[in-house]
Amino acid sequence: MGSGDGAAQMNLLERGLLSKPGSHDEDTGAEDETVLYTASFKEMEDNFVKYQTAQWVLYSLLLILAWGIGLFMLLYLPVRRHILRKDIRSRRLYVTPNAIVYKYRKPVPFPCFGVLKKEKHVLLPSVADVVIEQGYLQSLFGVYSIRIENEGVRRPPSDDVQIQGVAYPGAFRKAVLARLSDIRSDVLSRQVSAIEDVPSLRIGRSSTAWMSPSKSLRHDSFPPSGELMILQKLEEVESSVKRVQTLIEEQHSQTSQSIY
């Protein structure tokens, strides 16, 4: 009973510190941007703090056996929990039409020295995949990690953005992949429309050539593109096939007349 009351008092103290006026992040992170999807951290706050606390206690016990530094880490635990709550409450993760935006601000290890602010923008065309991970200790507390993989082999894996404590990570991954699919389909449609415009340009040039010989000579001075060369070859093959078909029909008619 005593330990439960102590834990309850610690939680009340942490929430009181966090609920002071001006402690909330003033930056909503999405005033001037169109937000397609916003991830939530609120539902995972308690589980995230418990997971980080268990991890901190395990490290502390190991360091007590090694050098005794773990004793100071255990004394620092209430401050650590306060920093974790401030951290996860300040996090903002959302998807815009062009990028994934991740912002947070948390106190430094000694909160009296201020806060650490960070803002990360990941362009959607550079995203290869959104990986959802969960380690053994994370599975005990129901905490997931999201890793945003970058396209290309030149960038090391350490450049991937890793975020812990996201509620409903599957919905966030689905939103990102859906937006990526829309972007790639738009690019593909533009390429197809550009290819379809090439024959129309060829027809326009041929009509103007009949109207103005000088212009036709000027156009012929430029080398044709690869697609126009292919069209010309196809026309030549088609005319050759027609000539062969005509010769075969003539020979067939002559042989039939000789028989009769």
From TrEMBL:
Q: Name one Pfam family in it.
A: DUF7642
- Is Isomerase there in the keyword field? no
Please list every transmembrane segment annotated in the UniProt record, as residue ranges: 56-79
Superkingdom of the source?
Eukaryota
Q: Where is the DUF7642 domain?
A: 86-184
InterPro entries referenced in this protein's UniProt entry, alphabetically: DUF7642 (IPR056059)
Keyword terms:
Membrane, Transmembrane, Transmembrane helix
Tell me what this protein is called.
DUF7642 domain-containing protein
